[in-house]
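With this grant's support, we have settled on a layout for protein records. A representative record follows, to show the layout.
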Amino acid sequence: MANQDLLLQALKSFAVAMGGSYEINEMAYELSYRVAEALGVAGAGVSIADSEGRLRFVTATDERMLQIEQAQEQAQEGPCVTAYLTQQPVSISNLQDIRDWAAYATTAEHLELHAVVGFPLSYDSERLGAINIYHDDRRDWSDEDLDIIGVFANMATAFLVRVTELAESRQLAKQLQEALDSRVIIEQAKGILAAENDITVDEAFRQLRQHSQDNNIKLVQVCESVVDTKLRIPRPETLES
């Protein structure tokens, strides 16, 4: 049974870490360190899915965990990968009883790691990654162990979702600002062209769009050239003659 005070402190520390402006790798380190501390195990590692859906090792608590996580990433097989793919926890009391994952099992034996839990990180059926928790000795993982890991996993998942949404929000804000900036440039170019050619702003806009299409140049680039006096579109009568 986990020490309740230690568990509470680990959860508080992890929550504080996630509340700051931390990068994903910093969150992953905090997650691996705090969950290992709460369970009193040898160590832990965190892997995150890349854009192609492959599980990529992010961080681990020490050199032994680093080696076993690297072995799993290279082979793309092991408890963390299985948990990630199935979205179900994978708990193994004794790795010596496992006949699968040859490269991973060999590395675990060399590092004298005997028990492991792979726990998925997921949100609304979207696979985000997984945590691996290791123990030096054989260990029958209890329901309480899995519940504790689940609490940390849920907190980490919330962080990853928040980071993703923030990135999307920033991208949307950037695109909106670019659109607003472009609008100002377009309005300026319309005014300049209308005044120079003694036409309406609507006709000026039509000419700007036509020049953009005829020359395969973005409208905002045409307008920027007009505003910067690098481009002058001929008067309508010149175009017709």
About this structure: The radius of gyration is 29 Å. The longest helix spans residues 143-197. The chain has nine helices and five strands. Residues 43 and 87 are 22 Å apart (CA to CA).
